[in-house]
Amino acid sequence: MRNVSKRFDETPPLRNAGLSLLPEWTILRKRRVNALIVGAVHLTTAAVAGIAMSVRPPIVWWTPEQVFEVPDLTSGTLVIRDVDRLEKRQQERLMHWMGTYCPSVQVLAMARAPLFPQVVDGRFSPGLYYRMNTAVVEIRALADLP
User: Fold this and answer.
1) What is the rounded distance in angstroms from the CA atom of residue 58 to the CA atom of residue 67?
2) Is cis: bond before 58, omega within 30 of 0?
3) Which end of the chain offers a freer environment for a tag, N or C, measured as fewer CB atoms within 10 Å?
4) pTM for the complete prediction?
């Protein structure tokens, strides 16, 4: 058997081995904090499915365009689709709800584009933005998934 060693710069990165290097996934799995997951719908949905075993049960999905009111959930995980499309009134209600039920409920908010520009131009509540983004994960490709 021959012992072959490689220089550090010749070692392939972990991403090529099929493992995501995003430390945010480790934080979400171990800490169960609120998170903002940004990317295409199919990628953000796959990301939530990838960490589903690590979040607080039960998992309740909310699509604000279909149901106006925040779900009646007092423990578990609330996954919000299209959080970037919340109306002002929904943002206010969600902010109040989070103040009442967090930290008993973990919130995973999914957005198609970064939310900060909406905060800057006044379309999204700064208070709600900062409550939701304890961890921010931007998913650009399948390699970024957990």
Assistant:
1) 19
2) yes
3) N
4) 0.80
CB 113 within 8 A of CB 41: no
The Cα–Cα gap between 37 and 125 comes to 17
- 122: its two tokens: 């006044």
Distances (CA, A) of 144 to 3, 19, 51, 69, 132: 33, 8, 13, 32, 20
Write down the pLDDT at residue 6: 42
d(CA 8, CA 11) in angstroms, rounded, equals: 6
Separation CA 45–CA 81 (nearest Å) = 9
Contacts with 95 (C-beta within 8 Å, 6 or more apart), sequence order: 125, 127, 128, 131
Please report the pLDDT score of residue 114 as a whole number.
Answer: 94
pLDDT digits (tens, 9 = 90+) for 17-55: 344 556 777 777 778 889 999 999 999 999 999 899 989
Distance CA 88, CA 85 (A): 9
d(CA 62, CA 82): 9
